[in-house]
């Protein structure tokens, strides 16, 4: 089975706003099908967004059916609202994260997906200053960690929350992935492995985002070897290895042949989603350029 090409929700956010409605996601799905992608993601970015657009299972099932009729799979549901809840210092908020994950399981199942993911997060006690444009992070110009901060205590708390989330996902028959990003509690392949080992469940994996990992100065093929079957989803984006831009694949410094070759070597047969995000004159054209670049690389490797 070969890796399939999908697309993330950035198109919908650029065209419709930060929290697209389900109807607007439908327009995104139509566009993705026309562009011959095999799958899309859906995402809820706040608790209000989640309640407004993802609480009606019948609507979600109709959305799934329309996607399937167009040859589109829903590759994952991003529970974006969970990110900072996982590191919140109020136990009640962390408990709420588990309850919201339980609801997210039903959303994923209604959409026909077996994967939920969320982003890693920085610890709330850290002060990190950097330039941010959309989801693009520059190297921090200031990092302050309070004297009373304990990594061991923060890590134990984080592992406990993720373990509780994974337990809910596993009970509902879905998997949970963490998209690890620079400057956060988990930010590289070794951190991802450590978290997976600590949680101890095969239902926990990672979203392997080539742009994030490049900024972390990872050797991408080596990182893929380290993570192997913990890679549940791949995001394909490029940057200069310094600032966490999400350019179209082929426009930056990602070593694409080695990266795609490593994914083939480990037998990765899931979705790889084009992850062009940010501010562009024509994001549609940028996504198509990334798609065409990856398809050409895959075609060349199969000869």
Automatic annotation (TrEMBL):
<dbReference type="Pfam" id="PF01261">
    <property type="entry name" value="AP_endonuc_2"/>
</dbReference>
<dbReference type="GO" id="GO:0016853">
    <property type="term" value="F:isomerase activity"/>
</dbReference>
<protein>
    <submittedName>
        <fullName>Sugar phosphate isomerase/epimerase</fullName>
    </submittedName>
</protein>
<dbReference type="InterPro" id="IPR013022">
    <property type="entry name" value="Xyl_isomerase-like_TIM-brl"/>
</dbReference>
<dbReference type="InterPro" id="IPR036237">
    <property type="entry name" value="Xyl_isomerase-like_sf"/>
</dbReference>
<dbReference type="InterPro" id="IPR050312">
    <property type="entry name" value="IolE/XylAMocC-like"/>
</dbReference>
<feature type="domain" description="Xylose isomerase-like TIM barrel">
    <location>
        <begin position="30"/>
        <end position="294"/>
    </location>
</feature>
<keyword id="KW-0413">Isomerase</keyword>
